[in-house]
Specification:
- By secondary structure, this protein is mainly α.
- The chain has one domain.
- Helices cover about 50% and strands about 5% of the residues.
- It has 13 helices and two strands, in the order ααααααααααββααα.
- The chain has a two-stranded antiparallel ribbon with strand order 1-2.
- A hairpin with a 2-residue loop joins strand 1 and strand 2.
- The model has no long low-confidence stretch (mean pLDDT about 95).
Length: about 325
């Protein structure tokens, strides 16, 4: 599939979308020949603007200052501080998902502007737990997602407090403190790709991942609406903190990035408008394509795993054809 924009055609399949944002582009860091200016623009758009990445950094700092007890208080395992960790995950997640849902779907402040799919959330269907997509998504996100997210995160804090996981202080090593943020983004992308590919193996798909894929038409609460088995696999990426020196702020950021970021990437809208102006980038068309076509775009735009392994869908007509052929080959039809 060519990278050249002039070769890009959305075609008949592309015109089925209510909003098609055009060609899906991957992080140019891995392009050849090197594209230094494109790389600088890419990272500036992520780190020097109001994005889900910068919002999660801010949320991590606020969470550390307000919700988390000091590491010294986590030397002994006590359910009181574990509850505070759970709340530090629940409150920002529920605020982001709840407010975004109300703005986009309850109050319909943008109507269908910037919405990928014209359809709304499903209200009555036996496919969903409680026969309601939103209630289904809220239940699995909170009861399983936030609980298991905390179950993997709390032992990291306990290990840091007891010297079993390496800890850094921002004042002692500010350069490394800053560097850990983008390192975690790359690591999470790598980990997510391979876990996601595993979840599309028939056994894991049937018994776990199918629950998330109930959401063909995604919404803010769909982000981490998953089966507990999927959450168990997904949150193993906290293991990096036992190897790479980090700070509790990084652990919070890591959790928010992989759990609150999906609130926005699954919002179903490319942009959030306030006062008829685009205020924040929200939906991720790269992942929206995965929810429509299933066997493509398993990773994220941060790493070119999908391009390297032939599973990349760039939003074009050719991308749709390639995905349909690959699915037919996979399922022998």
């Amino acid at each position: 599939m060519s990278d050249a924009s002039e070769d890009f055609e959305i075609g008949r399949e592309g015109r089925k979308w209510n909003h098609h944002p055009g060609e899906v582009r991957l992080n140019p860091l891995f392009a050849w020949p090197p594209q230094p200016m494109s790389v600088l623009r890419w990272y500036a758009n992520y780190w020097l603007a109001v994005t889900t990445t910068t919002v999660t950094v801010l949320a991590a700092i606020v969470g550390w200052l307000i919700f988390l007890p000091p590491l010294e208080a986590m030397v002994e395992w006590r359910w009181s501080w574990v509850l505070r960790v759970w709340l530090s995950n629940l409150i920002p997640h529920a605020l982001c998902a709840g407010l975004l849902h109300i703005w986009l779907y309850r109050w319909r402040q943008q109507d269908l502007r910037w919405k990928f799919e014209a359809r709304g959330q499903t209200q009555k269907s036996s496919v969903y737990t409680f026969k309601n997509q939103i209630h289904d998504n809220m239940f699995w996100s909170i009861a399983s997602g936030i609980t298991l997210w905390t179950a993997f995160q709390a032992p990291v804090y306990w290990a840091m407090a007891n010297g079993y996981a390496p800890v850094i202080h921002p004042a002692e090593n500010p350069a490394w403190f800053i560097a850990v943020f983008p390192i975690l983004v790359v690591w999470s992308s790598l980990h997510f790709y391979w876990v996601h590919r595993l979840l599309h193996v028939p056994f894991f798909y049937t018994h776990a991942h199918a629950l998330h894929h109930r959401n063909v038409n995604v919404g803010p609460w769909s982000g981490i609406s998953m089966h507990p088995l999927e959450h168990l696999l997904f949150y193993t990426n906290f293991a990096i903190h036992f190897v790479v020196a980090s700070h509790p702020i990084h652990v919070l950021f890591h959790g928010y990035m992989q759990s609150i970021h999906p609130v926005f990437s699954h919002s179903g809208f490319e942009w959030v408008e306030i006062g008829d102006k685009r205020r924040a980038k929200a939906g991720d068309f790269f992942h929206q394509l995965h929810h429509r076509y299933f066997e493509c775009n398993y990773g994220t735009v941060e790493m070119p795993w999908d391009r390297w392994f032939g599973t990349f869908h760039d939003g074009s007509e050719q991308g749709s054809r390639d995905t349909v052929k690959r699915k037919a080959k996979m399922y022998g039809s």
